Amino acid sequence: KVAIKGIERELICPSCKELFTHPLILPCQHNVCHKCVKEILFAFEDSLGDGGSESSSPSSPRIKLSSSSMDRIDRISRSGIKRNSLTPRSTLFPCPGCQRDIDLGERGINGLFRNFTLETIVERYRQAARAAVAIMCDFCKPPPQESTKSCLDCSASYCNECFKIHHPWGTMKAQHEYIGPTTNFRPKILMCPEHEMERVNMYCEICRRPVCHLCKLGGSHANHRVTTMNTAYKTLKEKLSKDIEYLISKESQVKSHITQLDLLLKETECNSERAKEEASQKFEKLFHVLEEKKSVALLAIEASKNLRMEKLQAQTEEYQGLLENNGLVGYAQEVLKETDPSCFVQTAKQLHVRIQKATESLKSFRPAADTTFEDFVVDIAKQEEILDVLSFHSSGIQIPEINEEQSRMYNKALISWECPGKTESADIYVLGYHKLNREEESVTWQEVEVCSKSKVISGLDDDSSYAFRVRGYKGSICSPWSQEVVLRTPPAPVLSFLFDDKCGYNSEHLLLNPRRTSVESRAGFPLLLGSERMQAGCYTTLDYIIGDTGITKGKHFWAFRVEAYSYLVKVGVVSSNKIQKLFHNTHDTTSPRYEQDSGHDSGSEDAFFDSSQPFTLVTLGMKKFFIPTTPAAPKDPASRILPLPSRLGICLDSDKGRVGFYDAGCMKCLYECEVDCSGIMYPAFALMGGAAVHLEEAVTAKYEEYNDDI
């Protein structure tokens, strides 16, 4: 048997770091004190602020919708999107044990079970720790006597006399169950927290919690696999007993591992000191190099200063001699006093040359030396950059490379990378990113640790460029930063919608996948029958389909992919008051330019045709993007044909009445025009012949699922 005093580590709440008090079992199977759950929920609510909807219910201090529902509701409230239903609300709780956000359901704390078994063990530990402290009788008159037993039905402790008084023979109380003195009272029957009048008699194997028969019949566990409580009790107890027996049988192996770990601790301490000494030596060597460079630079500056000072001092003395009664001028004045012509001429000739030079230098004054030391400015920009990334580099860890093809920007940023070569990969990665802003002088990188080779980043600004880089870590060794990759976010919030399979959907010509995210035009027998009209003209019917989500206000963006084999696809937007014309327009044609009855072979009818359409669409097909014919469009037809991007995007600004068509890979606008947004606007698509369109899937974070132990 394991001594009670040796299991204290298992009896500590992960939140308050004290012994459990009324512990609750979370869906992740961790235990937290009841009071700690409330405190964490309130703190979680305060930290998120206006991040979600709130409720003042004491059982659920913070009510928050799931992230996907929050995005959808946020668009409804701010952008006027029409939706039919909302996701039910739930309570999120940040578990301090596993550091995950746990869904507590609509009932919040009221839906959690108290862990009475853990409470009993904690009480036994408390009694072992305070054996000298007696539990007093709850009914004695002062001074109270030491209790001898506790009644589980009354939840009170009694001395012998008081127990006889309150539990007389011949009454119902005489049948109460009693145990030794305790302060931990647990109910004799465990009741369902959702159906308070029902006792739990089954065990849900999916949720791993006890349930009652009402939970199974019509509650949240209706479709879950359940077993009887006795079966679950026997199964879990047998499994736990076997595991405990196995651990006890391996006691010698555990002790051996402990001895090995002790040696590893000492070895780690010794190796860390050696690594510190080596690192100190490297930095000392670097300091020595810097000191030498510093001394050489200072000596060079000092020598240059002395030389310049000498030149300037000599020039100053020369100009001092030009003053009256000083130097050259004073000497010349004395020479002028000579009266003997021969002697004067002998001396004055050389003096006159010197006076002329002084006069010329006075007219064009120029300092003998430069006072600035611009040539001695030390450029350390590259060295600072190198020192900034100074770390424990290892040749065994390759520099990761960000995969631009697998990375994408949509509602969130999905950044993927890979490690080239066959060398050992890193244990963890650090992804750094920052917004490109010309106004900011200094760049502040945000960094996140990642255990996989991809990461979803949320909360990025719309219509902005971000730089990303990544490096790998293996222990204390890290690789250099990867080459920076710049990606641009969509110009507006992402609109989430599916293809509408009811409004005007032609199931004979179009094929939708079950998720309604892809549509394909089947160029089959019905199209051949309709092609008989091509003898009298080239009118060919287009099959239209719209999105199931409408827009009434705001700016929105959505992306999609057109298959390369598609012959003809039109994409754009349509107003709700013109949808009937969309599906019943008799002029659904590619172009009447070559119609035999038109009598024209020019582009004049194209402009009229585009302006008469009840919607705004652009044409795609044969791996090309065709810019519509407008007065502002290039006159050369070849310049209006662009290569078809792998992903296309549409940005609708219903407030300004403009729609833009983008290359969704680089978020570059290919074409923009005005559009009438008087009604509810819907995404619209048209297909002819063999063609297919796939809606861009939203970027979602992947969470680990809990494994079922039974």
From TrEMBL:
SUPFAM superfamilies recorded for this chain? B-box zinc-binding domain (SSF57845), Concanavalin A-like lectins/glucanases (SSF49899), Fibronectin type III (SSF49265), RING/U-box (SSF57850)
Domain named COS: which ranges? 336-393
Entry's Gene Ontology cellular component terms: acrosomal vesicle; cytoskeleton
Keyword Signal among UniProt keywords? no
What the entry lists under InterPro entries is as follows:
B30.2/SPRY, B30.2/SPRY_sf, ConA-like_dom_sf, COS_domain, E3_ligase_FN3/SPRY, FN3_dom, FN3_sf, Ig-like_fold
Q: What is this protein called?
A: TRI36 ligase
The family database entries (CDD domains) matched by this protein are listed as:
Bbox1_TRIM36_C-I (cd19848), Bbox2_TRIM36_C-I (cd19778), FN3 (cd00063), RING-HC_TRIM36_C-I (cd16756), SPRY_PRY_TRIM36 (cd12894)
